Amino acid sequence: MKAITVVPGEPGQVAVSDVSEPDPVQGALLVEGRLLGICGTDVDIVEGGYGSPPPGRDRLVIGHESLGEVREAPAGSGFAPGDLIVGIVRRPDPVPCPPCAHGEWDFCRNGRYTERGIKERDGFGSQRWRIEPEYAVRLDPQLGDCGVLLEPASVLAKAWEQTERIFSRASWRPQVALVTGAGPIGLFAALLAVQRGLQTHVLDISDRGPKAQLVTDLGATFHTGDVRDVDVVPDVVIECTGAGPLVFALTKTVAPDAVICLTGISSGRRRAEVGLDEVNKELVLENTVVFGSVNANRRHYQQAADALAKADRSWLERVITRRVPMSRFSDGLHKGGDDVKVVVDLRS
Ligand code: BGC
């Protein structure tokens, strides 16, 4: 069968080649890959030196945003041939640390977790893959190809869950949300904000392509330009760009007692002179919380599945703006102005 393999950090080494059928040690479910979403993490793996291959190998099967159809499922596994599933990305560390021992691998404390298609475990970028039933999430078949959006949505489900937990520190409830970045992650952050009844604003550096319309169709307000010029004082920010300077600017523009959740990372190396004492004073005097959120555990995949089921199906379909065949994986790594989510069709 064919798989998309990469040598992390060596862009010229991407290959779509024949590999052996997935090893049953990877899990009892045999799955036919349908679609594979591409995100910034994949670009960082191919070009930026992020990620690592399984021990003893130099190549990694890439891909962590999955969608596949079960082909073989043992009796008692809870799955049946024909089920549409998504694979959970992270596996607990071998020790395991206390959160990993409780199924909260997204809070792994020793860094020895593994991630499919990212860190020391082959991903889902192959015509067939295997997975352990306990790391597979069955989808509502109505979701069809939009199921490939579940993994990125799960990352935002966790971000919102944690944000809400922080807000339980006080009696007031947030009303105004700002999402920075209108890529797929920003759009899911906005979808979940709107579903929570928040007045939602989305800021992006560009209004090219379908992003502005997608935001408007959610019932949110689209802005472009500098965050300091946006006439909104948010109670909560979900930051989805990973742009360091923007993060510092946000600490100055939020309402008192705000929560700023950081979900993006950047491989950039921007440096700036920052008034650190000033930032410290602002955060303290305003009770501001700035926190990072990564990955998702099974509970978040379920929350994301519920959110996608409630979302407008045609809106979700419009988030997927381009499909590339497996052989053109590299073309999918670079987005054009009209792209939101690019996916690989593993069947072509
Ligand atoms: C994935 C997460 C993963 C993170 C860090 C993201 O793109 O969606 O599941 O934990 O990268 O590797």
TrEMBL record:
Residues 145-346 form the Glucose dehydrogenase C-terminal domain. It comes from the Bacteria. Residues 27-124 form the Alcohol dehydrogenase-like N-terminal domain. GO terms for molecular function: metal ion binding; oxidoreductase activity. Its cofactor is Zn(2+). The keyword Ion transport does not apply. Keywords: Metal-binding, Oxidoreductase, Zinc. This is Threonine dehydrogenase. It comes from Streptomyces naganishii JCM 4654.
